[in-house]
Each structure stands twice: as structure tokens, then as C-alpha cells.
Design goal:
This protein is mainly α. The protein contains 2 helices and no strands. The longest helix is centred in the first third of the chain and has 16 residues.
């Protein structure tokens, strides 16, 4: 069982060191992105309009 204990400890330590930001914790950044999307403004260049065939 020694290998299993060592494995579990490594998994637990990796989980504690993970710093993934959850969507609900982003706050102001996420609200700004949503507002920009709703207003039709974005920081990306406009897509080219293709002619229909």
C-alpha cells in the first residue's frame, strides 16, 4: 500500500497547487467581455464578408 499512499499524496498536492480560475470568480473581466459582446463591439478585427455563390 505504500505506492498507493504516495500516489494519493502526489494527487492531493497537485490539486492544492492548481490555480485554475473558475468562470464565476472572474468578476469584472467576465462582465466586461459580456457587455462588449452584447454591444457588438470587440477588440478583434471584423470578419470579412464573403460573397454568396
Amino acid at each position: 500500500m505504500k505506492a498507493r499512499t504516495r500516489f494519493l499524496k502526489s494527487v492531493i498536492s497537485a490539486a492544492k497547487s492548481e490555480t485554475t480560475e473558475m468562470p464565476w470568480s472572474r468578476g469584472a473581466t467576465r462582465q466586461a467581455q459580456i457587455a462588449a459582446r452584447r454591444n457588438g463591439t470587440s477588440s478583434q478585427p471584423a470578419a470579412q464578408h464573403l460573397k454568396s455563390a
